[in-house]
Automatic annotation (TrEMBL):
InterPro entries: Acyl_CoA_acyltransferase. This is N-acetyltransferase.
């Protein structure tokens, strides 16, 4: 059985209220925008995601990022997991990402996490995204018990949970 209903249609464009940014599924073609966003915020992202995902490595190359984004694009098409890029209006910059994944740990039916680039931390766009994501998941996704990893559950507590079967 899939983690999502067979007839589920994932959103393809999600405006972030009161900002000039939006979310859309990431693509391999976004590598030129994604790579500088990730590597420009790499140290903070490693503090958040490193223990769980071993990402982003200090030595990650542009080609490794491209391969990673191609994998995400294929997973989105297959409804296996979702990576949404946070983009400016013109789609000339990746400003962060939202991940929506099947549960790796017990106690939820979907796991959601997100980040913004260093220069947006603590600012209006991050606050708007923080407010949007739980509302968007509740409104547009078929989860009964979503887990907001790094938000309602710390990454350390998440790692300590039993693996989902």
């Amino acid at each position: 059985m899939s983690w999502l209903p067979d007839d589920f249609v994932h959103p393809v464009y999600v405006p972030v209220p009161d900002t000039a940014v939006h979310l859309r599924p990431i693509r391999e073609a976004d590598t030129a925008l994604d790579y500088p966003a990730v590597m420009g915020s790499r140290e903070r992202l490693w503090e958040i995601f490193g223990p769980a995902w071993s990402w982003p490595k200090e030595t990650m190359t542009y080609e490794e990022d491209r391969i990673d984004l191609l994998r995400h694009e294929k997973e989105i098409a297959a409804h296996q997991s979702f990576n949404y890029a946070l983009l400016n209006e013109e789609e000339t910059a990746v400003l962060g990402c939202v991940y929506i994944d099947p549960p790796e740990r017990t106690g939820s039916d979907g796991e959601v996490s997100w980040w913004v680039v260093d220069e947006l931390v603590g600012g209006e766009v991050e606050r708007a995204l923080d407010a949007l994501v739980p509302q968007w998941i509740a409104a547009d996704w078929p989860f009964q018990q979503p887990r907001y990893v790094g938000r309602d559950t710390t990454w350390q507590d998440w790692l300590a949970l039993p693996r989902a079967s």
